[in-house]
Specification:
- This protein is of the alpha/beta class and 429 residues long.
- 46% of the residues lie in helices and 13% in strands.
- A six-stranded mixed β-sheet has the order 1-6-5-2-3-4, sandwiched between helices. It has a five-stranded mixed β-sheet with strand order 9-13-12-10-11.
- Residues 79-83 have low confidence and may be disordered.
Length: 429
């Protein structure tokens, strides 16, 4: 496949340096994307860069993921209004290991193929590099005028809320440029890719290579992904959507994709899946005939959740979704792990009670007196008789139903449903 054409139809091509496409058609080419290890997990804001590497490998080329162990100690001013916190070496090493495991879900690091993926950490070649060597071998080739002209620097210097730009951050583009020079010289890496906010840093690298070794070097960026309303992609009210299941449960991860607008889903399914053009166009056409079924969002959610968390986690997420929005049984409730259960019912009224107050109590007393799930005992009895009350997804018919140890899911939770949409979670302390 032609990588540049692949990016174009997927809406993933923003800037490309002249000669890049010709280089890719000439031979198997190595390209890298830099990833900042400021946390021990990637989030979906990283996904576009990772997908560029995935598509690159699928097109027969060699992808390289560069973890910025050294540059992560400094922080990149591009698109930022504040300097980042500096991380210690032990934290960075931990973060790098975690990120590598996540990348292995997207890229082939293990096969014997000539284009198998490689992971590098710039801390390995920067840790023993002295400041004097850096100033002499790198600093003298790029002028301050050249560095000052970069948009990322100008935005920080001229921003109203800016406290200026530290020398540490100012040197970031030289450090990133040196990464490209190092990989170009030692790994025959000829292309650097990234988000459009990285264009300035990437072209500093190509310029440094041109001025020092005269090697071939190219640049390519994808647009910054936004929502249809112009807001930043990947952020929710509760913060980042992480790829780590401990930080964002597969259920919440799946829900994120399920809840995107039709307009965004049409863009995202091209960017964040490996489905081919024909299949995507077919799904979009089918979705448009009946948008209410949300076929597009469901397919997008399936593809991305399976890729990140695996098929079983996806199926659990769908099952969990059905607890709130579809027909579900006590069996499906019992399948859920604690984190997913709390994820699904995050936001519903919750009551923490001593176990003695639950086991043996009559539901009418627990739900109408001990808690305020029902305004009165009369209301509870009336709804039970009408078939409108469920305990753990099973309707109760006895107005004097007494709760037992068996009603505690995982020995701890009772899910009460009043009518179709009102849920309450009783938690045993």
């Amino acid at each position: 496949m032609n990588f540049v054409e692949e990016l174009k139809w997927r809406g993933m091509l923003h800037q490309i340096m002249p000669g890049t496409e010709e280089q890719l058609q000439k031979e198997i080419t190595t390209a890298y994307v830099g990833i900042d290890p400021t946390a021990d997990s990637l989030h979906i804001g990283h996904l576009c860069g990772v997908m560029m590497l995935r598509h690159f490998q699928r097109c027969g080329h060699k992808p390289m993921a560069l973890i910025g162990g050294a540059t992560g100690m400094i922080g990149d001013p591009s698109g930022k209004s504040q300097e980042r916190n500096l991380l210690d070496e032990a934290t960075l090493r931990h973060n790098v290991e975690c990120i590598k495991k996540q990348l292995a879900r997207f890229l082939d690091f293990e096969s014997d193929a000539p284009n198998k993926a490689v992971l590098v950490n710039n801390y390995d070649w920067m840790k023993d590099y002295t400041f004097l060597d850096f100033a002499r071998e790198v600093g003298k080739h790029i002028t301050v005028n050249y560095m000052m002209a970069k948009d990322s620097v100008q935005r920080r210097l001229n921003g109203e809320a800016s406290d200026g730009l530290s020398f540490t951050e100012f040197t970031y583009q030289l450090l990133q440029g040196y990464d490209f020079l190092y990989l170009n010289s030692h790994c025959n890496c000829k292309l650097q890719m990234g988000g459009s906010d990285q264009w300035g840093n990437i072209t500093t690298g190509t310029e440094l290579i041109r001025r020092t070794t005269g090697g071939e070097a190219y640049a390519l960026t994808c647009p910054l992904i936004t929502k249809s309303d112009g807001r930043k992609f990947g952020k929710t009210e509760s913060g980042n959507v992480w790829l780590d299941a401990e930080r964002t449960t597969p259920y919440k991860f799946y829900q994120f994709w399920l809840n995107v607008t039709d307009e965004d889903a049409e863009r995202y399914i091209k960017i964040f899946t490996s489905l081919d053009k024909e299949e995507i166009e077919g799904i979009i056409a089918e979705h448009r005939t009946d948008p209410g079924r949300r076929l597009l969002q469901k397919k997008l959610g399936e593809e991305v959740t399976v890729m990140v968390h695996g098929r079983q986690a996806y199926e659990t997420a769908v099952e969990a979704s059905n607890l709130l929005f579809g027909k579900a049984t006590k069996e499906s409730l019992l399948h859920l792990d604690e984190a997913t259960l709390l994820s699904v019912f995050d936001g519903v009224p919750q009551y923490e009670l001593q176990k003695e107050a639950i086991v043996g109590a009559k539901a009418v007393d627990l739900l109408a007196e001990t808690t305020d799930c029902f305004p009165s005992k009369g209301e509870f009895r009336k709804m039970v008789k009408g078939g409108g009350v469920s305990i753990n997804k099973e309707k109760i018919a006895d107005t004097e139903y007494a709760l037992s140890e068996a009603d505690l899911i995982g020995g701890k939770y009772i899910l009460v449903q009043k009518g179709k949409k009102n849920y309450y979670l009783i938690i045993s302390k």
